[in-house]
Amino acid sequence: MPEGDTIHHAANRIRAVLEGCVPEQILTPQARHRIDDWPRTLAGRTVRSVDAHGKHLFVRFEGGVTLHSHLRMTGSWGVHRRGERWRRARQRAWIVLRYGDWDVVEFDGPVLELMSESRTRTHPQLAALGQDVLGERFDEGRFLARLRADDQTRPIGDALLNQETVAGIGNMWKAESCFALGIDPWRELRHLADGEALALVGHARAAMRRSVDAGHPPRAHEVYRRAGRPCPRCATPIRRREQGENNRVTFWCPGCQR
Ligand SMILES: [Zn+2]
Questions:
Q1: How close is the Cα of 196 to the center of ligand 1, in Å?
Q2: Are 166 and 197 in contact (CB under 8 A)?
Q3: CA 238 to ligand 1 center in whole angstroms
Q4: CB atoms within 10 A of CB 75
Q5: What is the DSSP letter of 238?
Q6: Is 250 helix (H, G, I), strand (E, B) or coil?
Q7: What is the three-state SS of 104-170?
Q8: What pLDDT digit, counting tens, does each position of 161-186 carry?
Q9: What's this model's pTM, rounded to 2 decimal places?
Q10: What is the pLDDT of residues 122-156, one digit of tens each?
Q11: Is 55 part of the annotated catalytic residue set?
């Protein structure tokens, strides 16, 4: 699943093509959207801004109309030079925004909706989001307050995925950050000191910023998707197990993560 760094990188690429421009053509090849009237609603409107908050991406048009996307497990944004082969089949494109030499394409949804600017602030899921792990500033007090408002018997690995506590961290950055700090993702919040929680989120923030700057997430991992391989720190075999209410897989070293 794309995490916050991937979404911010997509927003940066889309912004470079569309911000301040009126898309020359808007297409909705995916059959699901034939009943929608997006091309007409958006025709002639300037893209005011493109931004991301956690795993959510917003293309904001003039006149208070915003395209909101969340890629979940299946979706993807592509920025393709006109005529270049797309990464996925045309009929999987939910929207194509054309400008100059570029096609900005959203593939496979699954959450893509037009909403009013004010709705982006009152939409229950969006309004509940915690601060963005990649935000310009990070309010540590606010993060801790939300973390401590959560169930304190919840394991930290699961709690870091709660987008209402902090937005943008997914499975990979959770596992890698817990490993980097030597913290067992199964440790319950009540046994985690504030300083440890801040170190975890601080590590995720720095590593995810480097990923945004690099333009892609790291290709090599310490523990993520390395079950059975030796831990790079202590050589104990890395373990994998489902965690939390959504059964998201976690990876950790039982030898050096406490
Ligand atoms: Zn280890």
A1: 18
A2: no
A3: 7
A4: 20
A5: P
A6: strand
A7: EEEECCCEEEEEECCHHHHCHHHHCCCCECCCCCCCHHHHHHHHHHCCCCCEHHHHCCCCCCCECCC
A8: 999 999 999 999 999 999 999 999 99
A9: 0.95
A10: 999 999 999 999 999 999 999 999 999 999 999 99
A11: yes
